[in-house]
């Protein structure tokens, strides 16, 4: 199966470098996506530009792909299901939940000079970054790509209720499946509360398993693709 890999904030497609060979060895065709504004130096990129790049990859896939969204990019994966419900086999949401219609994509941190730079590690202390050693933290921070303001503050537009029929896998790294299920039941993710087919897969890692547990992460994604 084609597996489209969308990295979260501050990451370009190279974030998947250690996951790609593992998925290939498991018999899948991983496709890390290059998003406008995440690695190409285009600070004017918008959320719509990024969604167009995702949809182009969905349309180019020979069959129905699994669309994987990491962290904030869970929303991009869900937007793909909304725009192409007949072409997306399944979405896998890793360490994140999709923003609802009318909300900003990822307006979580300060904007400086038209971009949202990586804010440092203080906001992520605890379960998010517990398995990142200092070398990994330094490497991440030094290569982090500032997110264009028009991406971070882009407004999410969801229009096709057929998205709720697209199967969803919630991959749970820094939280447990039980916690995710409870949050959704409590109304923290109105979109996933309406998903017709929802399953949970556990992954014992922090928020960035492509860095700390690439082999285990690939196995979980392969399981999502095969289920």
TrEMBL record:
Assigned keywords, A-Z: Hydrolase
Keyword Transmembrane: no
Gene Ontology MF annotations: hydrolase activity
AB hydrolase-1 domain: residues covered: 3-219
Gene3D superfamilies, per the entry: alpha/beta hydrolase
SUPFAM superfamilies, A to Z: alpha/beta-Hydrolases
Presence of keyword Hydrolase: yes
InterPro entries: AB_hydrolase_1 (IPR000073), AB_hydrolase_fold (IPR029058)
Pfam family, one: Abhydrolase_6
Lineage: superkingdom: Bacteria
Protein name: Alpha/beta hydrolase
Upper classification of the organism: Bacteria, Bacillati, Actinomycetota, Actinomycetes, Streptosporangiales
